[in-house]
Amino acid sequence: MEFIHSFSQILLGTCIDVLPIIILIIGFQFLVLRQPIAHISRLIVGGVYVVIGLALFLAGLEKALFPLGNIMATQLSDPAFIYGTDKIVMDTDWKAYGWVYLFAAMIGFATTIAEPSLIAVAYKASEVSAGIISQWGLRITVALGVAFGISLGTFRIITGTPLYQYILAGYMIVIVQTIFAPKNIIPLAYDSGGVTTSTVTVPLVAALGLGLAATVPGRNPALDGFGLIAFASLCPIITVMGYAQLMHWFTKHKTKSREKSNAL
Amino acid sequence: MIISIIVKKLKNAVTDLLPIVLVIAFFQIFVLKQPLPQMGEVIFGTLLVVAGLSLFVQGLEMGLFPIGEAMAHALAKKGSIFWLLFFAFTLGFSTTVAEPALLAVTAEAAEIASKSGLINPGKESLNQYAFGLRITVAFSVGLAILIGVMRIIRGWPIHYLIISGYVVVMLMSIIAPKEIIGLAYDAGGVTTSTITVPLVAALGVGLASSIKGRSPLVDGFGLIAFASLLPIIFVMGYGLVMFG
């Protein structure tokens, strides 16, 4: 009973999310385009699938994964677990947080693989590139970026270093990469920064950030808890361009050596 | 036929979720060494997630992608830049302004600002601050989609625009109040919801494939990138205006 209540709440929320889109599309159809839509019934069924599917997905996450993720984030960042004693630790030793970095990286990777927005963009990218960009290739590359980003973000919270320095360094890397990366991957790489962080990743990662900022001595959750999402949006841009550069270099190298052997 | 499609979709969804299950199981069993609390609930929830993800992906292929592309084609055929840009802005603004993630973030931001003594701790000024922040972010997302669509029409290379955006972010980070920077960086990530992203991606790709001389891969992507960058600039700007 309680579940039905929470599910209908989520379903309602998803409907409200879709409402502006429906109004906009219908408004444009009737007032501006003035044309009937082709395959209208199929589109409506598809739209209903999206709404119900997303609501089920969110309800399941709230029931199973979020509570677990929250508990684990708090347990792993608990000083009693990290330092193995109940003593109050005054100094923070960033090397003691090994499990936290590993957990951050693994949960970042795993949630990104399950992220519906990324599935959608990878699907489109593979379709548009006629399969040259594989769905799994893109998703794994982005997930590795998020894994590294979240891990680095927890390191920042633990050491208490200023966020903007990391972001500025990240921007510098992106700018340099943009100069050298193959031109057709650049828009997709920039996009992959924005799609990684939505329904699955944000709640789990936010819990980890706030949990850490609350338990690490000398950190203020209000100031230090933010910023993990920023890392998760920046690092995939770097890994996607890096992967494309690597592939580009690899194929060039291969053709060159083939030309050489042909010449001989 | 239908059954084999359903089985395939379910199988894909299980593959998508497997990493999360493995990570949580690994940490529970080997690191924290504790039994999973409420095993039944967890299994039930995971089944819901699998069913939901399969249904969502099926709906993407049937509904969201085709409608996005159909709108893009129809608007491009109509040939009115005004209506195209109007559609782009409204799509960005209206899907962002009521976004639950944004509501949560702005409420929290107002809380932080009042604790740091930047705004009055009264309820009215809190709500006003959060509302202003929400409108700012929604406006910036609308403007971002508009600029992105303009770029597709004109065929501007994306990196000039994005890199100039980065330079603006860097310069503003130096002068913006410290309390707003973390929030501003995060705001870029939370604005684009799971329903907006596929629609916007389909819009970009559809537009790029119906305008002569544009490549769907090079010109069709990039709308989401603008929607993640512009809110950072606008939220820092909001901080500067509010706290001077």
Short description:
The complex is a heterodimer of chains A (264) and B (244). Chain A is mainly α.
Mean pLDDT of chain B: 86
- Integer count of domains of chain B: 2
Helical segment tally of chain B?
A: 10
What is the domain total for the residues of chain A?
Answer: 2
Low-confidence stretches of chain B: none
Describe this structure in words.
- The complex is a heterodimer of chains A (264) and B (244).
- Chain A is an all-alpha fold and 264 residues long.
- Chain A is built from eleven helices and no strands.
- The radius of gyration of chain A is 23 Å and the shape is flat.
- Chain B has 244 residues and is an all-alpha fold.
- Chain B folds into two domains: 1-57, no CATH class; 79-243, no CATH class.
- Chain B is 85% helix and 0% strand.
- Chain B has helices at 2-31, 39-78, 81-97, 100-115, 123-154, 158-175, 178-190, 196-210, 216-220, 223-243.
- Chain B is flat.
